[in-house]
Amino acid sequence: MNPAPRRSSLARGALFTELDGRTAEILLNAATQRHFASGATLFHQGDAPSQLFQISTGLVRLTRVNPEGEQTTLRFMGAGDLVGCVAVFRQVAFPATATAGKPTNVLCWGSVQILDLMSRHPAISVNALNTVGDRAREMVDRLAEMTDKGTEARVASVLLRLVGQVGRHGPKGLEITTPVTRKDVSEMTGVSYFTASRILGGWQRQGLVWLGRARIVVLDPERLAQVAG
């Protein structure tokens, strides 16, 4: 059983940043609360952008299938993140598939509804534009990683990004836990699974990371940041 978040905790995250109380209440009242079981799909790649989601609790994985039918993990998203924002704001088809990586609660707005709220409340529009700008900057950074960095630097960059997105402090260090896998790391880095596993194994022997069956723990983020450049 995954209880819904308390109302007091819902008015947080990307769209609610620095909103005054009245505007935040209007935005929250317009939302529908939804629950997705682990493995459930929020939307598929190519679907019309009919809804915008903001994660309250849980985890969402974004994946994309290329023309050759190969699936790639793009990113993971946690509490406070907007899912599908670029497609909804630009009114283009969803470029990826969003799947709940664990039981996930979200706030949901219809695309017409959220665009109307943005037009009537400039502060909401500012938050939306800032979020889109952050996603664009992330894509530029990832493109730069693919073209400018060596293989180990790319793997290190992906691990640090995952720590920022879905990491948590644990007894050993900064944990990147299931459902994130070594296969996800290889896909997000653009290297083979064998290469990613070899690099991670080498780092474990050097004390940079610890590898478990269902998790990766970053033991020395400073050294890893040096590898990432």
Short description:
The chain has 229 residues and is an alpha+beta fold. Helix content is 45%, strand content 24%.
Model description:
It is a single chain. The chain folds into two domains: 7-146, Jelly Rolls (Sandwich); 150-228, Sandwich (Jelly Rolls), CATH 2.60.120.10. 45% of the residues lie in helices and 24% in strands. It is built from nine helices and twelve strands. The chain has a four-stranded antiparallel beta sheet with strand order 1-8-3-6. The protein has a four-stranded antiparallel beta sheet with strand order 2-7-4-5. The chain has a four-stranded antiparallel beta sheet with strand order 9-10-12-11. α4 (111-120) packs across α5 (122-148) and α6 (151-166) packs across α9. The protein is globular, with a radius of gyration of 18 Å. The termini are far apart. This is CRP-like cAMP-activated global transcriptional regulator.
| CATH fold category name of the largest domain | Jelly Rolls
Strand order of the largest sheet: 1-8-3-6
Mean pLDDT: 89
SSE order, one letter for each helix or strand? HHEEEEEEHEEHHHEEHHEEH
Structural domains: how many:
2
* The CATH superfamily title of the largest domain: Jelly Rolls
- Radius of gyration, in Å, reads 18 Å
Tally of DSSP helical segments: 9
According to CATH, what is the class of the largest domain? Mainly Beta
Q: Pick out the low-confidence regions.
A: none
Q: Specify the CATH architecture of the largest domain.
A: Sandwich
Beta fraction: 15-25%
SS elements, strand count: 12
- First CA to last CA: what distance? 43 Å
Structural class from helices and strands?
Answer: alpha+beta
